[in-house]
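anyone seen this seq b4? input:
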Amino acid sequence: MGREQTQTESPQPGHEGVRRLNWGCGEWTVEGWINADIKAGDGVDLVGDIRDGLKLDSDSVDYAVAVHSLPEIPYTELVSTLAELRRVLKPGGVLRMALPDLDKGIEAYHRRDSSYFKVPDEDARSVGAKFVTQMVWYGYSRSLFTHEFIEEQLLKAGFTSVQHCAYKQTASPHADIVALDNREQESLFVEAVK
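predicted toks r here
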């Protein structure tokens, strides 16, 4: 992952010349963003596994957003994945992530609040079963997150500062970095600066 990418990328910059990356977009592609995912689909600009390197030049993206995509990366590859996202950011560029918040899930479990969990009764009936199913998201999530854990991983990946943020609020100079925020109830939000 640490190798330099030399391909000139074709995705269009966002509005006003700002280059914005929507990494792990799945089917949620957004106009004006470079939509990247492991699977091809309508509106996906870059297809490939981030662990093989993104087909973007180093220092070429103003900011990147990842909404619930990092959990699909195994624990042993989190730092190198974050380092690859850091590589494509311009100096001072910002990575914003929404991640499933393990602490919120534990609190809901202890409150016995089955309404917190997005798992239907036909998949899991008890609060404990809903908790586990949601935290591993039917086997797709390979890593779990707390604020402290993601902060440590980001710093290990070379980011210079980490800011915990609220839903739709940013510490960055990019007001629309929050445009892709969703899943407020179950998520933690964090920004890291290259």
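Confidence is low (pLDDT under 50) at residues 1-13. The first strand starts at residue 20 and ends at 23. kinda curious what u guys think
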